[in-house]
Amino acid sequence: MSKLFSPLQIGNCTLANRITVAPMCQYSAVDGSMTDWHIMHLGAMALSGSSMLVIEATGVVPEGRITPQCTGLYSDANEEAMARVVKFVRSISPIVVGVQLGHAGRKASSARPWQGRGALAPEQGAWRTDAPSPIALAPGWPTPHQLSVQEMGSIKAAWVAAAKRAARIGLDFIEMHSTHGYLFSEFLSPLSNKRTDNYGGNLQNRMRWPLEVFRAMREAWPADKFIGAKISGTDFAEGGWGPDDAVVYAGELKKAGADFVTVSGGGVVLDAKVPVGPGYQVPFAERVKRETGICTGAVGLITDPHQAEAILAEGKADFISLARVLLFNPRWGHHAAIALGEEAAAMANAPQYDRVSSKVWPPAKTLGKLVA
Ligand SMILES: Cc1cc2nc3c(=O)[nH]c(=O)nc-3n(C[C@H](O)[C@H](O)[C@H](O)COP(=O)(O)O)c2cc1C
To answer: Could you read off the pLDDT of 59-108 as tens digits, one per residue?
Structure first.
């Protein structure tokens, strides 16, 4: 049996294989509430052959959304809309479903990618952004408001409230967003955190708030359900967060009750030098896994089933997190099964599609290898 299609235990949950759907913003919500687009998108992802699905970065407060069209989990309407989508996903697939909770910090109040991604202008409905320190992301971006300790307290309460909403929806897990230059990533990185109080300065201080929030969520989240975080392996920038920091942070998260981390990176500064290439972030995951022993996901330009299999077989990660390749090919998991000789798994989780199983439809055998 391939490693990719072997089961994985995270907390009390057993995943059927090690393919997971990375959180992907769809910029298609209304006032933070999911729409029919999410039914289509998450429905397609649920039939991808993956075992675990992370719902997109979801703001714990309205100001914590990246764009005005991002999802939120701060109102009853948001909760109801997400519950509807999750109920639908559960009706078509046994996939394990959770949500990535987030706060965009100084990168909030921005335009959708297809509208330029930049900071919103006042006439476009811009709002005040919050950050550890009053340092703009880049020229042309507003100077964020420096959060007071009291304000950090109310944002922490919002994370906990969102976690409780996620529990009521019946989600299987939550993932705390602490990478890509959003609020927690801004606290963690010395490039964006210049505070002189207990929440800035050395690594212990910079980690303090994200860890406090994580502990509060762990306490509020049902004990029998799992919880994790998406973290940065590096800022890809001089003087920034690096792999040693990632190891320490992942270790602290583990002590705080995290069942998994997914190791990504970048996003704190816009002029980072990212050496983009196949599996470019895998070495960071590998170090975190080796040095902390926490269940670790690798992400970033993993597109080929044999590449995914090698990462797992060589012990560099416990699971694979896929984003763009699943948008490109929403049946990737099934095709990967064929490519790795795991024919029994192909198309198996939707009997409506049994007619294209490789057992009864010979072209599947060649097409699967071609397109995965
Ligand atoms: C459309 C799109 C939306 C994304 N939204 C999120 C998000 O909500 N949260 C997050 O942590 N990463 C997000 N990402 C990053 C992915 O989760 C992933 O880390 C990154 O794309 C690298 O993986 P890939 O090479 O498989 O695409 C997004 C990526 C894409 C393509």
So the answer is: 999 999 999 999 999 999 999 999 999 999 999 999 999 999 999 999 99
* Longest pairwise C-alpha distance within the chain: 66
Cα angle: 68, vertex 71, 77; to 5 degrees: 105
67 three-class SS: coil
Count of structural domains, the chain: 2
- Under 8 Å CB-to-CB from 302, ≥6 apart: which residues? 278, 279, 282, 308, 311, 320, 321, 322, 325
Q: Which two tokens stand for residue 334?
A: 């099934």
CATH number of the domain encompassing residue 315: 3.20.20.70
Domain carrying residue 369: 341-372
Name residues contacting ligand 1 (CB within 6 A): 22-25, 56-57, 100, 177, 180, 230, 264, 299-302, 322-325
Q: Are residues 205 and 261 in the same domain?
A: yes
CB 103 within 8 A of CB 154: no
Torsion of CA 264, 65, 273, 286, to 10 degrees: -10
Ligand 1: residue whose CA is nearest its atom 6: 24
**Residues 57 and 35 placed together within one structural domain of the fold:** yes
Are 296 and 248 contained in the same domain? yes
The model's pTM is 0.97
**How many A from CA of 24 to the centre of ligand 1?**
5
